Amino acid sequence: MNLKSIRSCLSLAFCLTFLLIPLAGIQASGKAQGDSAVDKFSKAFLDSVKTSDFARLKALTPTETVWRKMGPKLEKGKSNADIAKAVKKNLEPKWRADFDNIQRTAKDGQIDLSRLQFVAATLHPNPENKDLTGLEIECSYNGAKVSFPLSVTQFDGQYYLLDILLSTNLFRNVPKG
């Protein structure tokens, strides 16, 4: 199994987490309040979107140390450079495409991303894997709700982006004009 396979499993796991837990009526989410680590992460993610700065988004992704923690057997014997190369090849194109989709969707809908206002961050723990967590970043735009569903991991009290679960139709609730 390689990083590309892990990413595919992560996406499926988090899609299932976001879809099945609410449908089953399980209360497995919690709103993060104040200046918690998840709030800081969420605001940093939102800032990268608002400023169209992909480098800021990349700064929110796992370090080699975090990847080693998530897949110790997979990363055993690999150098940090090897891990970074695998991430760049297998994961970064998806992050870039999703980021660009968000920007394009906003432009097509004439959405001024700088006007997005952070409302709340809601964690959706994955009962199958404690290292993987769903995160919904709720924003407001002219009174309409806009949500960014992500998959994240937490390591040493800090959150890291694993995947953007939805990058199109994010602004469907925003009234036109």
Q: What's the quick description here?
A:
45% of the residues lie in helices and 23% in strands. The protein has helices at 3-24, 37-50, 54-58, 64-70, 72-75, 80-90, 92-108, and strands spanning 30-32, 117-125, 133-141, 144-155, 158-164. A five-stranded antiparallel β-sheet has the order 1-2-3-4-5, sandwiched between helices.
Characterization of this structure:
Strands 1-2-3-4-5 form a five-stranded antiparallel beta sheet, with helices on both faces. It is α+β, with helices and mostly antiparallel strands and 177 residues long. It is globular. About 12% of the residues have low confidence. Strand 2 and strand 3 form a beta hairpin. 27% of the residues are buried. It has one domain. The protein contains seven helices and five strands, in the order H-E-H-H-H-H-H-H-E-E-E-E. Helix content is 45%, strand content 23%.
Any chance you could write out the topology, listing elements then pairs?
Blueprint: H1 3-24, E1 30-32, H2 37-50, H3 54-58, H4 64-70, H5 72-75, H6 80-90, H7 92-108, E2 117-125, E3 133-141, E4 144-155, E5 158-164
State Rg.
16 Å
What percent strand? Answer: 15-25%
The number of distinct structural domains comes to: 1
Walk across the major sheet and give the strand order.
1-2-3-4-5
Shape descriptor reads globular
Specify the number of helices: 7
Q: How many individual β-strands?
A: 5
Helix-strand pattern: HEHHHHHHEEEE
The residue ranges in which pLDDT falls below 50 over 5 or more consecutive positions are 9-29
Structural class: alpha+beta
Distance between the termini: 48 Å
Mean pLDDT across the residues is 83
Described by strand count, sense and barrel closure, the largest sheet is:
5 strands, antiparallel
Tell me roughly what share of residues is in helical segments.
40-55%
